[in-house]
Amino acid sequence: MTDNSKRIRQQAVDWALCLSETASPAEKEEFDRWLAADPAHAESYRRVAAVLDQTHIALAKEPAFTRKTFRRGKGPGKIIVAVLLLTVSGSLIAVLDVPTQLRADLMTAKTELRTEKLPDGSTIHMNSDTAIALSFSNGRRRIDLLKGEAYFEVARSDTLGAFEVATPEGAVTALGTAFDVNLLESGFEVTVTESRVAVHSDATKQRVVLDPGKRIIVDDAGIGPEETVPAEFQTPWRNGRLVFDDRPLSEVVTQIFRHIPGRVITLDPRLNRKRITGSFNLTDGNRALDDFADAFGLRIARTGKFLTIIY
């Protein structure tokens, strides 16, 4: 991107924030002149407005966001300006996931936990920010985990087919009763609490049987090594905690932000590779995030209730 393009994009962001509040007649006239001055102005503004609209979160109308965005000089305000600019040019703030909403039969919002009885008598416990699609017909019991995490207590059936949980990277077939499937940034994690499951990797066509108290991760490289997990760490989210053992920061942040409204951005990509080990109380998600940041030497800037920046 040229320096001129960056300058135009900065101007477009400034106008989007200005017009989101009550702009004066003089400001509106100035905006019209700015649009007419160069076709690139209108195109850049269209992109900015589209991002703000598609996210369905009125960032520009959030007083804390507006104040901090227009603060000049050093500090979080300057960082937040950069974040919005990056958002417009890329996709740092996730847009509304319409395809997932259209496919899902059951969904949970952020901070919401939900338990549902399935048509076959099985029970599903859904973590926050989770979506699933059901296919229970013609002797088939299939669940597509579209996002998030769920714990399954499977009802035995002599008439229905195998109980299967499908993900983009593979599938889990119940050979007994209870297990957890968690979608990660790349791949998925399976934890068995009772009986056994068969885990299949689409990438490598591997298939392994996982016993109680065991956990594995499946990604595009195939099925990883088994890990023994103490009972209290198998599904800690169901008891209001998150537990991590040598996991990348990017994954930890994703898990924590299932329980905090809004979006999160990590400014320095190198931070995402930082390895994290710890346990966090989810009774207060924001407090958990603060404790997490303090423990690992991270800084946090919040812009109202919609956006959190880690840097």
Report what the structure shows:
This protein has 311 residues and is of the alpha+beta class. The protein folds into 3 domains: 3-89, no CATH class; 98-232, Jelly Rolls, CATH 2.60.120; 240-310, Phage tail protein beta-alpha-beta fold. Helix content is 30%, strand content 32%. The protein has helices spanning 3-19, 25-37, 39-54, 63-70, 76-89, 98-103, 249-256, 285-295; strands spanning 106-107, 114-117, 123-126, 131-137, 140-147, 149-153, 163-167, 170-174, 178-183, 188-194, 197-201, 207-210, 214-219, 222-223, 227-228, 241-248, 263-266, 275-281, 300-303, 307-310. The strands form 4 sheets. Strands 2, 3, 6, 9, 10, 13, 14 and 15 form an 8-stranded antiparallel sheet that branches. A 7-stranded mixed sheet has the order 1-4-5-7-8-11-12. A 3-stranded mixed sheet has the order 17-20-19, sandwiched between helices. Strand 7 and strand 8 form a beta hairpin. Helix 2 packs across helix 3. The longest helix is centred in the first third of the chain and has 17 residues, at 3-19. It is elongated and about 75 Å long. Mean pLDDT is 80; it is low at 54-96.
